[in-house]
UniProtKB/TrEMBL annotation:
GO biological process, one term: quinolinate biosynthetic process
Enzyme Commission number(s): 3.7.1.3
UniProt name for this protein: Kynureninase
InterPro entries to which the protein is assigned, alphabetical: Kynureninase (IPR010111), PyrdxlP-dep_Trfase (IPR015424), PyrdxlP-dep_Trfase_major (IPR015421), PyrdxlP-dep_Trfase_small (IPR015422)
Organism: Streptomyces capoamus
Gene designation per UniProt: kynU
Cofactor(s) the protein needs: pyridoxal 5'-phosphate
Keywords: Hydrolase, Pyridine nucleotide biosynthesis, Pyridoxal phosphate
Top-level EC class as recorded in UniProt: hydrolase
Family membership: Belongs to the kynureninase family.
Pathway membership, UniProt: Amino-acid degradation; L-kynurenine degradation; L-alanine and anthranilate from L-kynurenine: step 1/1; Cofactor biosynthesis; NAD(+) biosynthesis; quinolinate from L-kynurenine: step 2/3
Pfam families in alphabetical order: KYNU_C
Subunit details: Homodimer.
């Protein structure tokens, strides 16, 4: 097999997604932190400037209608829908992921049979999901039961109301089996709620195909929506009439300008809205999503696996055996779009990598995380990152 440096060049030449890199603002740094904050698409600043100067500055209040501000949450939801395998009319964008986890969980519990008194949560979840699940359980008088995703099938039963799972583990990069776990949750008569933060934009999700009930995700990682860009909420069409939001704001009222003192929910995905949308962030996200036009999620997944495979190969080549332990599964079916390596001095190692222009991140206590965004990461970047890592670990 060729030298990694030669191979990287060949792989970049054969990469059909490589031209997309020019659509992003990137410098000489190898940016492997798109699983935390995606890079800036180059056309976004001008679009945001237009929103600020013309839509806000010149049109002012007229923009709610004339610039499509009012309908932006569901319009942008429909732009995200094909990326997560959802038909239109089921996703609304707004609020943070944390807030949407709360809406989804409480709504799921309210849809479950009253006798079901347990809420299962991924014990290894990103902390906010666990905190909110605990609060949702307390508010609805249910018991929270933290279990690992592998333990979910055995923990399900006629007491289970709903289950909150992560599609990809934020720390290890492990991809969980969404189709099988959703089917198991349904077989037990419960509802499946998925957190897609680390999968949307990196791999196929298939929300409709696999009958997921509710899902949430952020837009600032692989969707490149910008710091703090609003999250999204998916409610399966067949459940929308029963979606009883714990945060029923005027934006989700059937007649928001009727100023009715009593609440009547709107039909469809709009029911997931709460208050006035965060227009500047929302429209920055809408602009950022343009880079996805004509891009197939299957091609993104294929490249993501090729990138992570190549990174593992280069790490094996450049790093002393036993110096790091890979905690991301080898099997493609269990791997997201990141590689997590464990070593005792991970915090210090990551500082040195960043100083040398290889940007990943550190997760307490001993994990080096490298995220691979197929839209703008190339194979030569991967080779360089692994080489610098090997040098810093030596
Ligand atoms: C898996 C997961 N869920 C939830 C969150 C929290 O998202 P937010 O800060 O938008 O509420 C994050 C943030 O990184 C995350 O990685």
């Amino acid at each position: 097999m060729s030298e990694p440096t030669l191979l990287a060049k060949e792989l970049d030449q054969a990469d059909e997604l490589a031209p997309l890199r020019d659509r992003f603002v990137l410098d000489d740094v190898v940016y492997l932190d798109g699983n935390s904050l995606g890079a800036l698409p180059a056309h976004v600043p001008d679009r945001v400037a237009d929103v600020v100067r013309r839509q806000w500055g010149d049109l002012r209040i007229r923009s709610w209608e004339e610039s499509g501000w009012w309908t932006a949450p569901e319009r942008i939801g429909d732009r995200i829908a094909p990326l997560v395998g959802a038909a239109p009319g089921q996703i609304v964008v707004g609020d943070s992921t944390s807030v949407n986890v709360f809406k989804a969980l409480v709504a799921a519990i309210r849809m479950a049979d009253a006798g079901r008194d347990e809420l299962l949560v991924d014990a290894t979840t990103f902390p906010t999901d666990g905190y909110i699940a605990e609060s949702a359980a307390r508010l609805t008088g249910r018991t929270l039961r933290p279990v690992t995703p592998a333990e979910v099938p055995g923990a399900l039963g006629d007491r289970t109301a709903a289950v909150l799972l992560n599609h990809v583990d934020y720390r290890t990069g492990r991809l969980h089996d969404l189709p099988a776990l959703t089917a198991a949750v349904h077989a037990a008569g419960a509802l499946a709620v998925w957190d897609l933060c680390h999968s949307a934009g990196a791999l196929p999700v298939g929300l409709d195909e696999h009958g997921v009930d509710l899902a949430v995700g952020c837009t600032y990682k692989y969707l490149n929506g910008g710091p703090g860009s609003p999250a999204y909420l998916y409610v399966r069409k067949g459940l929308q009439d029963r979606f009883d939001s714990p945060l029923p704001g005027w934006n989700s009222h059937a007649e928001p300008f009727g100023m009715d003192p009593s609440y009547r929910p709107a039909a469809g995905a709009v029911r997931g809205r709460v208050g006035t949308p965060d227009i500047l962030s929302l429209l920055a996200l809408e602009a950022a999503l343009d880079v996805w036009d004509g891009v197939s999620v299957a091609a993104v997944r294929a490249k993501s696996l090729a990138l992570t495979d190549f990174f593992l190969r280069c790490v094996a080549e450049y790093t002393e055996p036993g110096r790091v332990e890979c905690v991301t599964p080898e099997r493609h079916a269990e791997r997201g779009s990141q590689i997590a390596l464990r070593c005792p001095d991970a915090g210090e190692v990551m500082k040195r990598l960043i100083a040398r222009g290889v940007v990943g991140d550190f997760r307490h206590p001993d994990v080096l995380r490298f995220g691979f965004t197929p839209l703008y990461t190339g194979f030569r970047d991967v080779e360089r990152a692994a080489r610098v890592l090997g040098e810093e670990l030596a």
